[in-house]
Design a protein that fits this description.
Radius of gyration of chain B: 22 Å
Shape of chain B: globular
Largest sheet of chain A: none
Low-confidence stretches of chain B: 1-10
Largest interface: A-B, 31 and 35 residues
Number of strands of chain B: 12
Mean pLDDT of chain B: 88
Distance between the termini of chain B: 50 Å
Shape of chain A: elongated
Oligomer: heterodimer
Number of domains of chain A: 1
Number of strands of chain A: 0
Strand order of the largest sheet of chain B: 5-6-7-3-8-9
Distance between the termini of chain A: 40 Å
Radius of gyration of chain A: 20 Å
Mean pLDDT of chain A: 92
């Protein structure tokens, strides 16, 4: 063999390679396609069919009527982010670990940072497509009004960026909790479901007992959902929030705190081999 | 950065792997207990031993996956536990278990893993070498166990390794697949790749390995060429039938044993039933070593 100039692939080349593989894997798995990617849109359609005749503004002396499906939309936006960031990673990483995929990657020259960078990009790419689909269906199939002012969309932008980062870090940190890939779904899904109920995704938040509202305030989903309501609901609906405020500052602080803590935990606890492997 | 070729010239030894006094304890139980071993560059070395003897623990320490409790280990002139990316570029790993149900096709997976290396082999060439050309567009998760194992080998090869670890590569293969796998390994040997193989199959070690090490209870009990190991047995194997059961004994004094048997269990004709005296095979020697190990513990 003649000596050739060997070019070691750089960080971004590798990250692109790895991201393409991650996206292929994500979209080829029926489970992730249906239960992560399409789920918020399917649920919005389902709830619109079931509750579309109800208005959340009933009995309120409000200038505009807000239909339940419009109230439900920000909850489904937040759901999409927590599914793609948290649920998807907290389930798929233990499966990859059990199947030896992580161990295989660890045995190659792939830098660990590339693996995580590609996971983050995967989450952002998938959730952008997912939320795009959700909003198109909301607007053009269900006729839900979307905000028309720039301020609301800027707010949507930062809440999305921060919320997805927090959920991704949480998902990677939580991936060390399930003991096996098989049990991961059973461990992760109830956690997400309980958080959703506590955080007012399925009911108007004002109808939830005060102590639950307070309790859910320890978790990021409640604040992400509340911030998304500030984007997709008319301003006067702020009266239905605890304390009559969207609490965007508190939300940003709680989500950032979870982001930092999860990142630290993820770095400390991440394992490339399964437990039975020592 | 220094090129691989320079590194090869500068190599201080002609050893690919050097192990001195390796110990690995889980809790207080030693899995590897004072192992010494050298593997030369270009050699195909087979590590044999019963389940739980410490083969996989040893190989995973060499691969950099596990920390050792004590001892000196050098793989391609580096300590695998502190090795970096440039070291990983020079080794290929085929792990023991293969449960990777990837939705990627064989071609996509090989080319993806290959993209991590500075000078990967051509994807189609690798697929051909492992006999997966016809299945190149098949997804990993729809492959049979043997097909997936060949994909594992392809993924271990694509980075053009100098040293290839194969941990029980042919478990679950049918005899024909095993033969074709052996031909693949022979070709790799011809390319000058150093191979460290663990296996349960004696004929595999005999066919492929330049040298064989037998490990029981975490230390090496034999180290020789397959030929040397086989002929290293003093004496012969005597087989006969006694009380309806087949018996077998390796002995240095086969004549004395036969004399004794002729007195004890000869039939009406004065014949020992089903008597056979033969030269020991590698398997006989292996079983003898493993049995000695059992008695010792």
């Amino acid at each position: 063999m003649t000596a050739t100039t060997l070019r070691r692939p750089g960080f971004w080349t590798l990250t692109r390679e790895r991201t393409v593989a991650e996206l292929r894997i994500f979209f080829r798995e029926k489970d992730s396609l249906i239960f992560v990617f399409l789920f918020p849109t399917m649920f919005l359609l389902l709830f619109a069919a079931l509750m579309g005749s109800m208005d959340v503004t009933e009995g309120m002396n409000s200038p505009i009527v807000v239909n339940f499906k419009q109230y439900f939309l920000p909850g489904m936006v937040a759901t999409g982010i927590i599914y793609t960031g948290f649920q998807n990673l907290a389930i798929s990483i233990p499966v990859e670990r059990d199947q030896g995929v992580l161990k295989r990657l660890r045995g190659t020259p792939l830098p660990p940072a590339v693996y995580f960078a590609a996971k983050v990009i995967q989450v952002y790419a998938v959730s952008i497509l997912q939320l795009g689909l959700l909003l198109i269906v909301a607007r053009f199939v269900l006729g839900i009004p979307l905000p028309s002012d720039v301020d609301s969309w800027i707010r949507f932008g930062w809440v999305f960026l921060l919320g997805a980062a927090t959920c991704t870090a949480l998902g990677i940190a939580f991936s060390s909790v399930p003991r096996t890939g098989k049990s991961a779904g059973a461990v992760v899904i109830p956690v997400v479901l309980i958080l959703q109920f506590l955080s007012g995704i399925y009911f108007p938040f004002s109808q939830i007992p005060e102590w639950v509202q307070t309790f859910s305030g320890f978790f990021p989903l409640r604040w992400m959902a509340q911030a998304m309501r500030s984007v997709f609901l008319p301003d006067f609906m702020v009266s239905q929030e605890p304390g009559g405020t969207w609490a965007l500052g508190t939300g940003a602080i709680v989500m950032s705190a979870w982001l930092v803590v999860s990142l630290a935990l993820a770095l400390k606890t991440f394992r490339w081999s399964s437990r039975k492997d020592g | 950065m220094q090129s691989q070729d320079d590194a090869r010239v500068e190599a201080v030894t002609d050893l690919a792997v050097s192990i001195r006094g390796l110990r690995k304890e889980y809790g207080h139980k030693p899995a590897v207990d004072g192992l010494d071993l050298d593997i030369r560059i270009g050699e195909c070395f087979a590590l044999l031993g019963p389940n739980g003897a410490g083969k996989t623990t040893t190989i995973e320490i060499l691969e950099g996956y596990r920390k050792r409790t004590a001892g000196e280990v050098s793989v391609l002139d580096h300590d695998p536990h502190h090795a970096h990316r440039d070291w990983r570029e020079r080794i290929g790993i085929v792990l023991q278990s293969s449960a990777d149900e990837t939705p990627l096709t064989a071609r996509e997976y090989v080319s993806h893993i290959g993209s991590f290396y500075p000078n990967p082999k051509d994807t189609d060439e690798v697929l051909e070498a492992v006999g997966l050309t016809a299945l190149a567009d098949r997804k990993g998760k729809t492959m049979s166990g043997g097909e997936r194992r060949r994909l594992d080998v392809a993924l271990g090869l694509v980075g053009r390794p100098e040293l290839l670890f194969l941990d029980e590569p042919t478990t679950g293969f049918d005899p024909e697949a095993r033969r074709s796998f052996w031909r693949l390994i022979e070709n790799l040997k011809r390319d000058g790749i150093t191979i460290l193989l663990t296996t349960h199959y004696l004929e595999e070690a005999e066919f492929l390995a330049d040298r064989v090490g037998v490990i029981t209870h975490g230390h090496l009990v034999a180290l020789d060429t397959p030929e040397g190991l086989r002929t290293g047995v003093d004496g012969a194997v005597v087989e006969w039938r006694q009380g309806g059961k087949k018996r077998e004994k390796i002995t240095r004094t086969p004549t004395a044993l036969i004399r004794e048997l002729a007195e004890k269990c000869a039939n009406g004709n004065g014949e020992i039933p089903d008597l056979e005296v033969r030269r020991p095979t590698l398997e006989d020697r292996y079983l003898q070593l493993v049995d000695d190990g059992k008695e010792e513990s």
